[in-house]
Specification:
single chain; 149 residues; alpha+beta; Aminopeptidase; seven-stranded mixed sheet; 36% helix
Length: 149
């Protein structure tokens, strides 16, 4: 294992990214019987669009999907391989997303998560994200949050 690096995903990272997302979100399917949005995503398309990033420490351990809007950065997905959780990789990915927004001159990072992901909501709130609204989309009860940088 080497020091973790966050880099744009290449074609060879698509399968590991999809595997990490499936593993990271599988427990939520068991909780409510619904497939979270990130498990429905096309990571090959995300890689070609240039919005898929990976955390690599010798193997892909984390995934980010960052989509720039006109006035904000959408943190569309952040996931860490369950086998690598507890190593600070989630924090590194979140730090990277916020730095990426600053470098792009975007003053806000927005994200959304499911209501049942209470642990994630607490993590985001502790990082300074504030809830903006809730909505049901694709059958999923989502909590929308943002952080002004």
């Amino acid at each position: 294992m080497r020091d973790p690096e966050i880099r744009p995903a290449g074609p060879g990272d698509v399968a590991p990214a999809a595997r990490i997302v499936a593993a990271a979100y599988a427990g939520y399917v068991a909780m409510n019987g619904l497939v979270p949005g990130p498990m429905r995503d096309d990571y090959a398309a995300r890689q070609r669009e240039g919005v898929l990033w990976v955390l690599d420490d010798g193997a892909v351990r984390g995934v980010l999907v960052l989509i720039a809007g006109a006035d904000h950065l959408l943190l569309d997905n952040v996931a860490v391989d369950p086998a690598a959780q507890g190593m600070g990789y989630g924090r590194l990915l979140m730090d990277f997303a916020e730095s990426h927004a600053r470098r792009a001159g975007l003053p806000v990072v927005r994200l959304y998560t499911q209501e049942i992901m209470a642990r994630n909501i607490a993590i985001y709130a502790a990082r300074g994200y504030a809830e903006t609204h809730r909505a049901t989309e694709l059958g999923l009860r989502r909590v929308y949050m943002e952080k002004r940088l």
